[in-house]
């Protein structure tokens, strides 16, 4: 099994649902020790496996995807 090279071209980011004023609210999660974390996934099937198929999300390009 070979390790992936570099970041993926896009990331799938869970959102908090509806949009207001064309802004997207990201879905921040609280960790067990009380810190906030932003979960991101490099494939849509991983987002669904972790957050469920009803989880709204957005697609964000990485620097690798902007070339």
Written overview of the protein:
The chain contains one helix and four strands, in the order E-E-E-H-E. The chain is α+β, with helices and mostly antiparallel strands and about 70 residues long. Strands 1-4 form a two-stranded antiparallel ribbon. The chain is globular and about 40 Å long.
Shape call? globular
Major sheet strand order: 1-4
Number of strands: 4
> Which assembly state applies to the chains in this document?
single chain
Strand content: 15-25%
- What structural class do you assign from the helix and strand content? alpha+beta
Summarize the main sheet. Answer: 2 strands, antiparallel
Distance between the termini: 27 Å
Helix fraction by DSSP (H/I, runs of at least 4): 10-25%
Q: What's the Cα radius of gyration? A: 14 Å
Taking pLDDT < 50 over at least 5 consecutive residues as the criterion, the unreliable ranges are: none
Mean pLDDT: 87
Q: Can you count the helices?
A: 1
N to C succession of SSEs: EEEHE
Briefly summarize what is shown.
By secondary structure, this protein is α+β, with helices and mostly antiparallel strands. Helix content is 12%, strand content 24%.
Which descriptors would you attach to this protein?
single chain; 67 residues; alpha+beta; two-stranded antiparallel sheet; 1 helix; 12% helix; 24% strand
């Amino acid at each position: 099994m070979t390790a992936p090279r570099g970041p993926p071209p896009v990331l799938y980011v869970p959102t908090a649902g509806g949009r207001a004023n064309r802004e997207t609210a990201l879905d921040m999660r609280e960790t067990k020790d009380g810190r906030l974390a932003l979960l991101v996934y490099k494939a849509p099937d991983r987002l669904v496996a972790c957050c469920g198929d009803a989880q709204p999300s957005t697609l964000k390009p990485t620097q690798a995807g902007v070339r």
